[in-house]
């Protein structure tokens, strides 16, 4: 069973490593969580658009790619504001788990 | 004659078992139901009864059968035993589906699905996985389009 985590939090965290597009980001989350977090494809794209609308991400389109039926890929990269938010989220989540370890 | 009937039965069965055929059937049903409802309402008795729905379903079955005979790419594999290019028809179905989607969703989301389907095909993945991906692509892009349209309408309403 997959672990539960907000899609936007996961995407923002992996985008701190560098830019990426939808499919690649899903794989990155899966790899970085040792296969524990599996994002639903259909939930990823609205989340990326929301993050972009909030000013946490910026995006651009690549050249058309034949494997995609001549469509471009849309790459996302984190903004300075996004990086600050990702840092805060990371700190908050780590705090949560440190507390959990103390209790156990 | 027996061969024609067996092909017809196989085609009717595949309308609900083959995702590509099923989606195409839904499109044909919607269009023929709307057409018949329009005729019934404005030309006959200003009502929309069960008769119209049944006639639309029957008409759509026949239309679907005839159109799929005409356009080979949506003809099910069972019609003439072809299998090799059946997976390619999934990509083509998504190409048709993309015409109904907003540009960004068609380019970004559907593009990613098509890329994945082409990759799975090149890796020799089982056909049911590829068909599942197609169904997933249609479901999620449809749902996200609905959500996108509602958001846009909300923006227009709040601006007005």
Query: How many helical stretches of chain A?
Result: 4
Using the 3D structure, state the CATH architecture of chain A: Orthogonal Bundle
What structural class should be given to the helix and strand makeup of chain A? alpha+beta
The secondary-structure element order of chain B is HHHHHH
Count of domains of chain A: 1
Assembly type: heterodimer
Specify the helix fraction band of chain A: 40-55%
Structural class by sheet pairing and helices of chain B:
mainly alpha
Low-pLDDT stretches of chain B: 73-86
Distance between the termini of chain B: 63 Å
CATH class annotation of chain A: Mainly Alpha
What proportion strand of chain B? under 5%
Spell out the CATH superfamily of chain A. Answer: Winged helix-like DNA-binding domain superfamily/Winged helix DNA-binding domain
- In N-to-C order, the SSE pattern of chain A is HEHHEEH
Q: Helical residue percent of chain B? A: over 70%
What does this structure look like?
- The complex is a heterodimer of chains A (104) and B (160).
- Chain A has 4 helices and 3 strands.
- With 104 residues, chain A is of the alpha+beta class.
- The radius of gyration of chain A is 15 Å and the shape is globular.
- The model of chain A has no long low-confidence stretch (mean pLDDT 89).
- Chain B has 160 residues and is mainly alpha-helical.
- Chain B folds into 2 domains: 1-82, no CATH class; 83-160.
- Chain B is built from 6 helices and no strands.
- Chain B has helices spanning 2-17, 19-45, 50-70, 86-98, 103-122, 127-159.
- The A-B interface holds A 21-23, 41-42, 45-46, 61, 65, 67-69, 71-74 and B 91, 94-95, 98, 104-116, 118-119, 136, 139-141, 143-144, 147.
